[in-house]
Specification:
251 residues; 7-stranded mixed β-sheet; elongated; alpha/beta; 2 domains; Lysozyme-like
Protein backbone atom coordinates (compact mmCIF):
# COMPACT_ATOMS: atom_id res chain seq x y z
CA UNK A 1 0.00 0.00 0.00
CA UNK A 2 1.48 3.38 -0.94
CA UNK A 3 1.68 6.08 1.66
CA UNK A 4 -1.09 8.63 1.36
CA UNK A 5 -1.62 12.10 2.71
CA UNK A 6 -0.24 12.95 6.12
CA UNK A 7 -1.73 14.79 9.04
CA UNK A 8 -0.32 18.25 9.52
CA UNK A 9 0.70 17.73 13.13
CA UNK A 10 4.35 18.54 13.72
CA UNK A 11 6.07 16.96 16.66
CA UNK A 12 9.43 17.86 18.06
CA UNK A 13 11.88 14.98 18.39
CA UNK A 14 13.89 14.73 21.59
CA UNK A 15 17.19 14.24 19.77
CA UNK A 16 18.88 17.33 18.32
CA UNK A 17 19.84 15.51 15.13
CA UNK A 18 16.27 14.61 14.22
CA UNK A 19 13.95 16.69 12.08
CA UNK A 20 10.33 17.61 12.76
CA UNK A 21 8.01 14.63 12.57
CA UNK A 22 4.73 14.16 10.74
CA UNK A 23 2.22 11.43 11.60
CA UNK A 24 0.68 9.58 8.66
CA UNK A 25 -2.92 9.03 9.74
CA UNK A 26 -4.44 7.97 6.44
CA UNK A 27 -2.37 5.35 4.62
CA UNK A 28 -3.08 2.58 7.13
CA UNK A 29 -6.22 3.77 8.92
CA UNK A 30 -7.58 0.38 9.96
CA UNK A 31 -10.99 1.62 11.03
CA UNK A 32 -11.78 2.91 7.53
CA UNK A 33 -11.59 -0.60 6.04
CA UNK A 34 -12.26 -3.07 8.83
CA UNK A 35 -15.07 -3.04 11.38
CA UNK A 36 -14.44 -3.33 15.13
CA UNK A 37 -13.51 -6.91 15.99
CA UNK A 38 -10.78 -7.01 13.34
CA UNK A 39 -7.80 -6.51 15.61
CA UNK A 40 -9.42 -3.70 17.59
CA UNK A 41 -12.58 -2.62 19.42
CA UNK A 42 -14.31 0.52 20.66
CA UNK A 43 -12.39 2.26 23.43
CA UNK A 44 -15.17 3.12 25.88
CA UNK A 45 -13.01 5.52 27.88
CA UNK A 46 -9.87 7.64 27.87
CA UNK A 47 -6.53 5.83 27.46
CA UNK A 48 -4.38 6.05 30.58
CA UNK A 49 -1.18 4.16 29.72
CA UNK A 50 1.32 3.60 26.89
CA UNK A 51 2.85 0.25 26.05
CA UNK A 52 6.05 0.04 23.99
CA UNK A 53 6.51 -2.98 21.70
CA UNK A 54 8.83 -4.05 18.90
CA UNK A 55 7.94 -6.12 15.86
CA UNK A 56 10.49 -8.81 16.85
CA UNK A 57 10.74 -10.46 13.44
CA UNK A 58 13.16 -13.39 13.24
CA UNK A 59 14.89 -11.68 10.30
CA UNK A 60 15.00 -8.08 9.02
CA UNK A 61 11.83 -6.94 7.26
CA UNK A 62 10.59 -3.97 5.24
CA UNK A 63 8.64 -1.29 7.08
CA UNK A 64 5.84 -1.38 4.52
CA UNK A 65 5.36 -5.09 5.21
CA UNK A 66 4.98 -4.42 8.91
CA UNK A 67 2.45 -1.70 8.15
CA UNK A 68 0.49 -4.09 5.95
CA UNK A 69 0.53 -6.82 8.58
CA UNK A 70 -0.82 -4.61 11.39
CA UNK A 71 -3.33 -3.06 8.99
CA UNK A 72 -4.80 -6.32 7.70
CA UNK A 73 -4.43 -8.64 10.70
CA UNK A 74 -7.75 -9.70 12.25
CA UNK A 75 -6.00 -10.79 15.45
CA UNK A 76 -3.63 -7.98 16.44
CA UNK A 77 -3.01 -4.30 15.88
CA UNK A 78 -1.35 -1.23 17.38
CA UNK A 79 -2.10 2.46 17.43
CA UNK A 80 1.27 3.55 16.04
CA UNK A 81 4.22 1.99 14.19
CA UNK A 82 7.57 3.78 14.00
CA UNK A 83 10.10 3.06 11.24
CA UNK A 84 13.87 2.89 11.63
CA UNK A 85 14.03 6.30 9.95
CA UNK A 86 11.60 7.78 12.49
CA UNK A 87 8.46 7.82 10.31
CA UNK A 88 5.28 7.41 12.34
CA UNK A 89 2.18 5.65 11.00
CA UNK A 90 -1.08 5.77 12.94
CA UNK A 91 -3.28 2.72 12.44
CA UNK A 92 -5.97 3.54 14.97
CA UNK A 93 -7.12 6.74 16.68
CA UNK A 94 -6.27 6.21 20.36
CA UNK A 95 -9.26 8.10 21.75
CA UNK A 96 -11.79 6.07 19.77
CA UNK A 97 -10.32 2.60 19.43
CA UNK A 98 -8.58 0.02 21.64
CA UNK A 99 -6.01 -1.93 19.63
CA UNK A 100 -5.46 -5.60 20.39
CA UNK A 101 -1.79 -5.41 21.36
CA UNK A 102 -1.27 -6.15 25.06
CA UNK A 103 -2.68 -9.64 25.52
CA UNK A 104 -2.72 -10.83 29.12
CA UNK A 105 -1.18 -8.00 31.13
CA UNK A 106 -1.27 -6.01 34.34
CA UNK A 107 -4.65 -4.29 34.57
CA UNK A 108 -3.51 -0.70 33.85
CA UNK A 109 -2.03 -1.88 30.53
CA UNK A 110 -4.89 -3.98 29.22
CA UNK A 111 -6.06 -3.08 25.73
CA UNK A 112 -9.01 -1.02 26.95
CA UNK A 113 -6.72 1.27 28.96
CA UNK A 114 -3.52 1.46 26.87
CA UNK A 115 -2.04 2.90 23.70
CA UNK A 116 0.17 0.47 21.80
CA UNK A 117 3.29 1.73 20.01
CA UNK A 118 5.32 -0.66 17.85
CA UNK A 119 8.95 -0.05 16.93
CA UNK A 120 10.11 -1.69 13.69
CA UNK A 121 12.94 -3.69 15.29
CA UNK A 122 13.75 -7.31 14.43
CA UNK A 123 15.48 -9.84 16.68
CA UNK A 124 19.15 -8.91 17.03
CA UNK A 125 18.56 -5.23 16.17
CA UNK A 126 18.35 -2.14 18.35
CA UNK A 127 16.06 0.89 18.08
CA UNK A 128 17.68 3.66 16.05
CA UNK A 129 18.23 7.19 17.30
CA UNK A 130 15.58 8.36 14.83
CA UNK A 131 13.08 5.88 16.26
CA UNK A 132 13.78 6.98 19.82
CA UNK A 133 13.46 10.64 18.87
CA UNK A 134 10.11 10.00 17.20
CA UNK A 135 8.97 7.87 20.12
CA UNK A 136 9.87 10.62 22.59
CA UNK A 137 7.96 13.21 20.62
CA UNK A 138 4.95 10.96 20.21
CA UNK A 139 4.85 9.98 23.87
CA UNK A 140 5.01 13.62 24.98
CA UNK A 141 2.03 14.48 22.80
CA UNK A 142 0.06 11.50 24.07
CA UNK A 143 0.94 12.33 27.68
CA UNK A 144 -0.35 15.86 27.14
CA UNK A 145 -3.48 14.88 25.20
CA UNK A 146 -4.62 12.16 27.59
CA UNK A 147 -3.05 13.15 30.90
CA UNK A 148 -0.90 10.00 30.99
CA UNK A 149 1.54 9.82 33.88
CA UNK A 150 5.20 9.06 33.23
CA UNK A 151 4.98 5.90 35.33
CA UNK A 152 2.25 4.58 33.04
CA UNK A 153 4.67 4.23 30.11
CA UNK A 154 6.24 0.79 30.11
CA UNK A 155 7.60 -2.09 28.08
CA UNK A 156 5.56 -5.07 26.95
CA UNK A 157 7.86 -7.45 28.84
CA UNK A 158 7.37 -5.57 32.11
CA UNK A 159 3.57 -5.86 32.13
CA UNK A 160 2.82 -9.07 30.19
CA UNK A 161 1.40 -11.98 32.17
CA UNK A 162 2.56 -14.49 33.11
CA UNK A 163 5.94 -12.91 33.81
CA UNK A 164 8.38 -13.72 31.03
CA UNK A 165 5.69 -14.19 28.37
CA UNK A 166 7.09 -11.30 26.31
CA UNK A 167 10.61 -9.92 25.83
CA UNK A 168 10.00 -6.82 23.71
CA UNK A 169 11.05 -4.15 22.96
CA UNK A 170 14.03 -5.89 21.36
CA UNK A 171 17.53 -4.48 21.84
CA UNK A 172 16.47 -2.11 24.64
CA UNK A 173 17.30 -3.27 28.16
CA UNK A 174 15.41 -2.08 31.21
CA UNK A 175 18.16 0.24 32.45
CA UNK A 176 18.29 2.09 29.12
CA UNK A 177 14.51 2.13 28.74
CA UNK A 178 13.78 3.71 32.11
CA UNK A 179 16.60 6.21 31.63
CA UNK A 180 14.95 7.19 28.33
CA UNK A 181 11.53 7.39 29.98
CA UNK A 182 12.82 9.84 32.57
CA UNK A 183 13.69 12.30 29.79
CA UNK A 184 10.03 12.67 28.77
CA UNK A 185 9.19 15.15 31.51
CA UNK A 186 8.96 18.68 30.18
CA UNK A 187 10.73 21.62 31.80
CA UNK A 188 9.19 25.09 32.13
CA UNK A 189 11.09 28.31 31.39
CA UNK A 190 10.25 32.02 31.51
CA UNK A 191 11.62 34.51 28.97
CA UNK A 192 13.74 37.26 30.51
CA UNK A 193 13.32 39.39 27.38
CA UNK A 194 11.37 39.20 24.13
CA UNK A 195 12.83 36.64 21.74
CA UNK A 196 12.17 35.65 18.12
CA UNK A 197 11.85 31.90 17.55
CA UNK A 198 14.54 30.18 15.54
CA UNK A 199 12.72 28.03 13.05
CA UNK A 200 14.77 24.88 12.47
CA UNK A 201 17.55 22.65 13.72
CA UNK A 202 19.78 24.12 11.01
CA UNK A 203 19.28 27.63 12.36
CA UNK A 204 19.93 26.41 15.88
CA UNK A 205 23.19 24.69 14.94
CA UNK A 206 24.45 27.58 12.85
CA UNK A 207 23.44 30.24 15.41
CA UNK A 208 21.79 32.22 12.63
CA UNK A 209 19.17 34.93 13.03
CA UNK A 210 15.51 34.02 12.46
CA UNK A 211 14.27 33.76 8.89
CA UNK A 212 12.91 37.01 7.44
CA UNK A 213 9.36 35.64 7.13
CA UNK A 214 7.77 36.96 10.34
CA UNK A 215 9.09 34.61 13.04
CA UNK A 216 7.05 33.99 16.16
CA UNK A 217 7.96 36.42 18.95
CA UNK A 218 7.89 35.28 22.55
CA UNK A 219 7.29 38.15 24.94
CA UNK A 220 9.20 38.89 28.14
CA UNK A 221 7.79 36.85 31.07
CA UNK A 222 6.07 34.40 28.73
CA UNK A 223 6.35 30.80 29.96
CA UNK A 224 7.01 27.83 27.67
CA UNK A 225 7.47 24.09 28.10
CA UNK A 226 10.82 22.83 26.80
CA UNK A 227 11.46 19.26 25.69
CA UNK A 228 15.13 19.50 24.67
CA UNK A 229 18.13 21.62 25.66
CA UNK A 230 21.29 21.10 23.61
CA UNK A 231 24.34 23.32 23.09
CA UNK A 232 22.73 26.30 24.77
CA UNK A 233 19.51 26.15 22.73
CA UNK A 234 16.07 25.14 24.01
CA UNK A 235 13.23 23.70 21.95
CA UNK A 236 9.65 24.70 22.68
CA UNK A 237 7.56 21.53 23.20
CA UNK A 238 4.64 22.92 21.20
CA UNK A 239 6.84 22.97 18.10
CA UNK A 240 7.11 26.75 17.59
CA UNK A 241 10.90 26.75 17.47
CA UNK A 242 14.16 27.21 19.36
CA UNK A 243 15.39 29.89 21.76
CA UNK A 244 18.77 30.58 23.38
CA UNK A 245 18.94 29.36 26.97
CA UNK A 246 20.63 32.67 27.84
CA UNK A 247 17.31 34.50 27.51
CA UNK A 248 15.41 31.93 29.62
CA UNK A 249 14.94 31.44 33.35
CA UNK A 250 14.19 27.92 34.59
CA UNK A 251 11.08 27.60 36.76
Amino acid sequence: MPFGAVLGVLLCPARPTAEALVIDTTSYNKATKYAPGHGYEARGGTPSSILIHSTNNKRPTEFIDECDFLFTSPAVSAHFLISKAGAVVQLLEPRLWAAWHAGRALVPYLNKYSIGIELHVSVGERPTMQQLAALSALCRVLMTNYGIDLTRIDTHRAVALPKGRKSDPEGWDDLAFYAWRSTLLLRRYRFRVAQAALSSNDLRAARLAPEPAAPHIWQANEVIAVDDVTDGMAHDASGIGFAPVAVLEAL
